[in-house]
Each structure stands twice: as structure tokens, then as C-alpha cells.
Amino acid sequence: MGGRGISITPFLSLLQEERRSPSGRKIFLIWSYLVHGELPYEREIVGSLEEALGLTFVHWNSSERGRIDVRAISELIGGGLDGRCFMICGPRAMMRALGRQLVSTGVAPSDVVLEDFNLV
User: Fold this and answer.
1) Which helix (H) or strand (E) holds 3?
2) Cα separation of 19 and 53, whole Å?
3) For residue 81, how many other CB atoms are within 10 A of its CB?
4) In this structure, are residues 18 and 55 in contact, taking their beta carbons and an 8 Å threshold?
5) Helices within 1-120 (DSSP H only)
6) Rounded to 5°, angle at Cα 75 from 42 and 45
7) Do residues 15 and 48 touch, judged by C-beta distance below 8 A?
8) For the domain that residue 37 is a member of, what is the CATH number?
9) Tell me: the pLDDT tens digits for 28-41?
10) Does the global pTM surpass 0.90?
11) DSSP run (H or E) holding 61
């Protein structure tokens, strides 16, 4: 799972469900942002880490590390992108670019879910 800024919101209910009924899956939540300290729901997510087994939470400060890409994701999760499901929420350009990168590495298009979280 990966979100940018406020786009982390759709993942909160998934984290709550994982706490209630652990699936046994390994979950990597990568949160990309520009300014640390302006992360909505950070306390809730960090609190979820203690209760959700198998959850790894990664802060990705794009102003320091550059835009998140497939290479970085592969390194963060220990390689092996094929056979995994990716859920991405954020600005449309970021979602499309990351989705295309994942598919170009062999990830099945059906394993890439783009969540268009839109407040308008």
C-alpha cells in the first residue's frame, strides 16, 4: 500500500480491519510526503503498527529522497514484486506513473489497484 499526504485516508479502514482480524499477510505501507510534521492520521497509523502483525510502515520524504519509484519499493520490500498486490492512492500523475512502472516489471495489471481518493 502506498499513499501520499492526505491520500493515506483510504488505507486507514484496511489497517483497522487488519487489527481486528489479522490476515497473516505481510503489509508494507509506504507514506510519501513532502513536509514531515504535516502528516494527517500519523498517530493512528503508528498506533496500528503495535497491533497489526506483519505491518511495516515506511516514511518516504520525497523532498529528501526523491519520488518513490519501483526501484525504491523493491528495495524496501526486499525484492520480488511479482505475485504481490499493490494499492496506490495519491495524485493521479503519481498513481499512473507508479502503476505503469509496476506493470512494466511484470506485475499483473489486476494486482495494481489505483484508489482515486478525491475530495471534490
Assistant:
1) strand 2-4
2) 8
3) 16
4) yes
5) 9-20, 42-51, 62-65, 70-77, 92-104
6) 15
7) yes
8) 3.40.50.80
9) 888 888 877 667 67
10) no
11) strand 55-61
Closest C-alpha among 99, 57, 63, 48 to residue 76: 57
120: in domain = no
Nearest to 19 by CA among 46, 42, 59: 46
The contacts of residue 36 (CB under 8 Å, 6+ apart) are: 59, 61
- Which amino acid would we find at residue 84? R
CA distance 59 to 29: 9
Length of the chain, in residues: 120
Tens digits of per-residue pLDDT, 72-84? 999 999 888 988 9
The set of residues, in sequence order, having a beta carbon less than 8 Å from that of 75 and lying 6+ positions away, is: none
The domain total for the chain is 1
